[in-house]
Amino acid sequence: MCETSNSSLITLQLAGHKASIRCLWRVNSAPTGTHAPFRTFDLLLTTESVWPQSEALEVLSPQNLEIIEVIHSNANATRVLGESLAQQFLYRCIRNHIQGKGSSLTALKLLLPNVDGYILRKDLIQRRFLGCDLACEIAEFVAPRQPVHRFKGATDMFAAALDQAVGGFLARETGANRQVAECVLMQLELEATLRLSFPWIMADPLPQYRLAIVEGRPHPSISAAAEGPYRAASALGVEVAVLDFDGHWLQDANQRSLCSEFIVCDITPDDGLPDRIVAAVARSRGPIHGIITYSDKLLVPTAKAARLLGLWTNDPHCIEACCDKVKLRGLAQPGQPVLSARDVADLRHKLHALSTPLIYPLIIKPAQGCSSEGVVLVQTEQELLAAMDKNHANFPDREQLIEPYISGPEVDANLVLVDGGIVFSEINDDFPSGADLEVGADRSQSPSFAETATIMPSALPPSELALLESELVERLRSVGLQTGMFHIEARPSIFLIEINPRTPGHQESFAVEYTYGIDYYALYTLLALREVPDGSSHGPIPDPAALQALKTLSCPLPEVIQYPTTIVFIPVSRGGTFAGAAPIPASLSPYIPHYRVLFQRGETIPDPHQSGRWPFVAYFLVTASLTGQAGREQVRALGECIRHEFHYEIL
Question: ATP-grasp domain: which residues (predicted)?
Answer without folding.
Answer: 325-529
